[in-house]
Hints:
With 432 residues, this protein is α/β, with parallel strands linked by helices. It folds into two domains: 6-281, UDP-N-acetylmuramoyl-L-alanine:D-glutamate ligase (3-Layer(aba) Sandwich); 289-431, Mur ligase, C-terminal domain (Protein-Tyrosine Phosphatase, Chain A, Alpha-Beta Complex), CATH 3.90.190.20. Helix content is 41%, strand content 17%. It has an eight-stranded mixed β-sheet with strand order 4-3-2-5-1-6-7-8, sandwiched between helices. It has a six-stranded mixed β-sheet with strand order 12-13-17-14-15-16, with helices on both faces. Helix 2 (26-35) packs parallel to helix 5 (115-128), helix 4 (94-108) crosses helix 5 (115-128) and helix 11 packs parallel to helix 12. It is globular, with a radius of gyration of 22 Å. The termini are far apart.
Amino acid sequence: MPGRSLPEWLDYIEHIHPKSVQLGLERVAKVRDALGRSSSAALLTVAGTNGKGSTCAMLEAILLAAGYRVGLYTSPHLLRYNERVRIDGVPLSDARLCAAFETVERARREITLTYFEFGTLAAWEIFAAEALDAVILEVGLGGRLDAVNAFDTDCALLTSVDLDHMDYLGDTRERIGHEKAGIFRGGKPAIVADPDPPRSVLDYAGAVGVDLWLIGRDFGYRKQGQQWMFWGRGVRRGGLAPPALRGERQLANASAALAALDALHARLPVGMQDIRNGLAQVQLPARFQVLPGRPTVVLDVAHNPQAAGVLAENLAGMGFYPETYGVFGMLRDKDIEGVCRALKARISAWFAADLSVPRGAGAQMLADALASAGAAGGVLCFSNPREAYAAARKRANENDRIVVFGSFHTVADVMQGIEAARIEIRGARQGS
C-alpha cells in the first residue's frame, strides 16, 4: 500500500467497487466513523443540476478575500485530480492526497467504496486535520444519498433543479428536487436559487424544519446598468461589478453565495470589500470561458438541456460572428437531442467527436441526434475532441467563433491539446 503514486491510487480506487455509482450513505458513514475525524469549520454543502461549481468558486473566493482559511471539495476535475481538493485556493499535492487515500484504505477494512466515496472521505480526512474556518462541499450526484451528505451541513445551497442523471434520481423535476433537497438540515439555513423550485423541495424543507431562503422572496438581484444590486433579508448591496465568471446566470449563483454568507454571518462575517474582491477574482475554467486570441474560442462544460440553454443565451449576448462552429462530445446517457435543440439556432456547423470513456457516445450518435433535433448546418464526425477542434480551427476565419461543449471529458481533451501545442511552440522558440 505505501509508496503508491497518485495515478496508481486513482487506478486502484476506480476498480475496488464493481459500480462507478452506488448511492447510499451506510458504507460511507461507517468509514467516516472509523476515521473518527471531526471539524469545527462552518460547513456549506452545494447541490443542483447546474451552477454548483460556479457557486462553490464564488463562496471560496469571497471567504478567501475576507481572510478565512477555506477547504473546497468539487468534482469532476478537468485536467488533474488535485483540482478536486483545495485548501486556501491551492490544489492539494500528490503526496498529501496519497497519504489521505492510505488512511481511508486502512479505515475501510472490508467495506467497498466507489471512486467518488473514497475521494470524498479522503478530502474530509485532509480538511479535518487542518484548522479551517469554512469547508465547502459540492455534491457529486443528487444529494440525499450522495457521499457528501454523510457530513451534516451548517448551510445548504440548492442552485437549480432540472432533468439530468435520471437513471439515478428519477425522471421528473419533483423526484429530482426531493433527492437534491436531502442535503437540508433541520433548523439550518437552506438557500434555494431555483426561481421555480419543485413542490417537493418546499415540502421537504417544511418537513425537516429548515430556515428556508427562496430567491425572489428572501433574496435576489437586480441589474443596474453595467452593475448589479443584491438584496437579502434586511440588506441591500448596490453598485456591484458582475462576477469575473461570465454569463447572466452567474448573478443568481452569486446571489445564492451572498445569501448563504448572510445566513452564516454570525460565524463568517464578510465585508463589502471582501465581496467585491472575491467576485472580481473568482476563477473557474470551462464555465463560459473565453480564451484570448482569434478566432474566439469558448469552453463550456454544458452537458444537459438547461445548461445548453444558458450557453445559447450567453452566445447570443456576445455580438456578431459570421460563423460559429460547435465542437462537441457527450456521454450517451445524457439528453443529447435536448442539448442539440437548445443550441441549434446558435451554431452554423457541427464537429462531433467520439468520447472514448465507458459512457461516451459515438460521433454518429451525436449526428443522428442533431438530425432529430432539426439542426441546420453540416456535421463532420471525428474520433476524438482534439481532432474535431483542430478541424474547426482550420475551417474558422479570425472573425469566427468556436464553441467547445458537451462534457467535462470533451473540454478537458481540447484543453490538453491546446496546452500541448503551447508547450511545443515555446520549445520551438527556445530551440531557435
